[in-house]
Specification:
The protein is an all-alpha fold. The chain has helices at residues 18-31, 35-52, 55-71, 75-91, 95-111, 115-132, 135-161. The two termini are 33 Å apart.
Length: 177
């Protein structure tokens, strides 16, 4: 963080390269738990990327904005940002960003306990990363997929132990999210 901050705009100036850094810095802030700061910075990134017509950075900003909204459990905003990000990524085309958006969409569906949709998004993510030869990303997504499978298997075992049926139907339909 400390090394990125001096690269930002100086007073009264708006450097074009800064637009590329804003989503990265916002993601770093989010990783540090500084959600409000991340939200403000990614809003700047979105405004600048739109104004400057920088679609690659717009996709990244939309993905980070979706991460912020996911952290805040603002499901409609997550969905809107992911849909717009996917549309822009496909229009460019930018398949790596498309895969990253699909992975984030999988996290959204997992948070909403929609197992089928989460698994489908992870499989689509893997397909793209494999096609791109992104071995590190493939390994990471395979690990995430395995972790979800273990978590869901443990939950199912807990339900069976309590005498509940194993329908796989999400409890989220009864909760206000």
């Amino acid at each position: 963080m400390a090394r990125l901050t001096p690269l930002l705009d100086q007073a009264g100036l708006e450097e074009c390269d800064v637009t590329a850094l804003l989503p990265v810095l916002a993601a770093a802030l989010l990783d540090l738990g500084r959600v409000d700061e991340a939200s403000k910075l990614v809003a700047q990134a979105l405004a600048r990327a739109r104004r400057e017509g920088l679609r690659i950075f717009l996709v990244e900003a939309l993905r980070v904005q979706a991460q912020v909204a996911l952290r805040q459990e603002q499901w409609a905003e997550v969905e809107c940002n992911l849909e717009e990000g996917m549309a822009v990524a496909r229009a460019i085309p930018y398949p790596y960003a498309e895969a990253r958006i699909l992975r984030l969409d999988s996290q959204r569906h997992a948070a909403l306990e929609d197992r089928t949709a989460a698994a489908e998004r992870l499989e689509a993510t893997l397909t793209i990363f494999r096609r791109l030869g992104a071995a590190t990303d493939v390994a990471c997504v395979e690990g995430a997929h395995a972790a979800l499978d273990r978590e869901w298997t443990a939950e199912d075992a807990g339900r069976e132990g309590q005498g509940k049926d194993r329908t796989g139907v999400s409890d989220s339909t009864t909760r206000d999210r």
